[in-house]
Amino acid sequence: RPYLDSRGLTTIGVGRCLDKNPLSDTEVDFLLANDVTRVQAELAPFAWYQGLDEVRKGACENLAFNLGLGGLLHFPKFLAALAIQDWVTAASELGNSVWAHQVGERAARLEQQILTGAWT
User: Fold this and answer.
1) How far apart, in whole angstroms, are the C-alpha atoms of residue 120 and residue 108?
2) How many CB atoms are located within 10 Å of the residue 54 CB?
3) Which of 40, 45, 60, 71 qualifies as a FRET site for 54, CA 20 to 30 Å off?
4) What is the pTM of this model?
């Protein structure tokens, strides 16, 4: 977890000062790859996830990354619609959520991925 060192500088790990030595693009990509792997493993046990095509899996991974698995599980109507491949209802449930109003374009993009099964 980031912490402030004795001089008030944002630091991580065993003393890396982010204020003076920010993460490189390669390091950010490494962290993201680890996060994607973790999210995929968290979603893997769910039947509604297993039955999805790659685009819709990607949308659910994006949601789980953004909301956390617990947050995603608070969308029961969305998940129920995914389980029966009712893309219109699933997309509508996403689009009409408080979350969608909070994140704007991200929600619109994921809603379209769920609806169409195509990368946007």
Assistant:
1) 10
2) 9
3) 71
4) 0.89
